[in-house]
Write a structure and sequence with these properties.
The protein has 192 residues and is mainly alpha-helical. The chain is 70% helix and 5% strand.
């Protein structure tokens, strides 16, 4: 059997769901690696960026639980290009980073699977989660005010929303994906 050192999983002995998860993580990281190499060789290229992010999003659509490991590994391996690389569109820079695309694709896939597919796992809405959602709602109100107010700063409003509300959703993704000791061990193996 083939031994995957990173995850310590025997591929031939793994359950089909584990194989799909492993394939999704490896495929997504392979596409991300290819995009970073292309970025280094040719500079930023919008069609290559869209192709890479589309491919990763398509893979994550079928396995949303692979999104969190891809976010963690992408941040650790390609920090500059994964978390700080804006989209160059002519002379403008759009601060939609690859981590944002992967995170959004993971969230949308998770919501889709919860609504139309998997019914087993649910996110508990405890006191902390409700307070966090309230804070995100306040950030959303600030975003709308900042975008439509004559005295507001749209760039600051979008940045604040992204940093506090959008990235705050990572809390829900982590608590959804890591609900038992085995899942925590798997995540720690990825990080270490």
């Amino acid at each position: 059997s083939v031994r995957m050192a990173l995850l310590d999983i025997r591929f031939n002995e793994a359950k089909p769901a584990s194989r799909q998860w492993l394939f999704s993580v490896v495929a997504s990281m392979g596409v991300l690696t290819a995009w970073v190499v292309a970025r280094l060789l040719f500079g930023f290229n919008l069609p290559i960026y869209l192709l890479a992010m589309g491919a990763i999003s398509a893979v994550l659509f079928f396995t949303p639980s692979a999104g969190l490991p891809v976010i963690v590994l992408g941040t650790m391996w390609f920090q500059r290009w994964f978390t700080l690389e804006p989209i160059a569109f002519g002379d403008q820079l759009i601060k939609l980073y690859p981590i944002d695309v992967v995170f959004l694709a993971t969230l949308l896939s998770l919501l889709f699977h919860q609504a139309f597919g998997e019914k087993g796992r649910r996110l508990a809405m405890l006191r902390l989660e409700k307070w966090l959602l309230l804070f995100m709602a306040i950030c959303t109100v600030y975003l709308v005010r900042g975008l439509f107010s004559t005295h507001g700063d749209p760039a600051l409003a979008v940045s604040a929303f992204k940093n506090y509300a959008f990235y705050g959703l990572l809390f829900f993704l982590v608590t959804f994906d890591v609900q038992n000791l085995e899942e925590l061990k798997r995540m720690l193996k990825i990080i270490l």
